[in-house]
Design brief:
alpha/beta, D-Maltodextrin-Binding Protein, domain 2, 2 domains, five-stranded mixed sheet, 12 helices, globular
Length: 289
């Protein structure tokens, strides 16, 4: 009788050993709007966790939460990972993974404007001349604070109001991410809007992953995996193959623009500004000859 039982126990032990790794896979919850930014970020997350050897199952919940709601849900553990341009508040309340997912691209800004202002922009040679224009930005956007800190006159409204106010000439310049304005203008043919081709503002604007404080090991794994991807070149390959980056290279005309650099006083002391591997150079945004 004992000769029958012992093999069965052996089989059960072996089966438990096989299923344990599956049970150990952690379920990670994220909320996604499903846009190009979300798809890129989700791919970066998968790359990082694969490089870190982190066993997980990703559950992506469709949604369009406000920034405040997403931050609260991440802080309280209902969301495991979110992504955003950084701020002191986010870095103090969540666990930042301080590797800029877009290599600082989000801080490269060009203007939507009314066609009447294009000739004025062609003549700009200095920051002082740029400060003479009026600007519009979204309520609570980090960019609004950056522009104000650098001496610009900024009016804050919702995005839908801002784009209509450019048309109505209520202010002159609407700075947008270098990847953003073409679809925003082409989707509104009824409005008189132009994209300036002469000037670009640049300021450090890291776009990070943020992890719930309940999972510090996850934040460590993401940082470890992203650094491995940077070291082996897979991070840059994914970045350069992004349709968004390809659109910037092909449409933004970076080489023909006057570039003005601004400070971002909202950055924390831990921002890795001194590591050139983490930031793009303007040459990376110029089409190869």
């Amino acid at each position: 009788m004992w000769r029958i039982v012992v093999p069965v126990i052996g089989v059960l032990v072996l089966w438990a050993g096989l299923v344990a790794p599956l049970q150990a896979r952690e379920v990670l919850h994220m909320v996604s709007r499903g846009d190009h930014n979300a798809h890129y970020t989700e791919t970066m997350i998968r790359l990082a966790l694969a490089k870190a050897g982190y066993a997980y199952t990703l559950e992506i919940h469709p949604g369009n939460l406000t920034a405040a709601r997403q931050q609260r849900d991440t802080r309280e553990g209902r969301i495991d990972i979110m992504w955003s341009a950084t701020s002191r508040e986010l870095e103090e309340t969540l666990l930042p993974v301080r590797i800029p997912l877009y290599k600082g691209l989000i801080g490269h800004r060009i203007f939507i404007t009314h066609p009447e202002h294009i000739e004025q922009l062609k003549a700009v040679e200095s920051l002082e001349q740029l400060r003479a224009f009026s600007y519009g930005q979204g309520v609570g956007w980090p960019d609004s604070r950056i522009l104000k800190d650098n001496g610009f006159d900024v009016r804050e409204e919702s995005f839908d109001r801002l784009i209509k106010m450019v048309h109505a000439k209520r202010f002159q310049l609407f700075p947008r991410g270098v990847h953003e304005p073409w679809s925003e203008v082409s989707n509104r043919p009824e409005l008189e809007l132009s994209i300036d081709a002469h000037i670009m503002l640049v300021y450090p604007m890291p776009f990070y992953l943020f992890v719930t404080p309940e999972h510090p090991e996850l934040a460590q794994a993401l940082e470890r995996g992203l650094m491995r991807a940077i070291e082996d070149g897979s991070f840059d390959r994914l970045f350069r193959s992004s349709p968004m980056v390809q659109s910037v290279i092909n449409r933004a005309g970076i080489a023909q623009r006057k570039v003005f650099y601004l400070e971002n006083r909202a950055l924390t002391e831990q921002t890795p500004l001194s590591d050139p591997r983490l930031w793009l150079s303007l040459e990376e945004l110029v089409p190869s000859s």
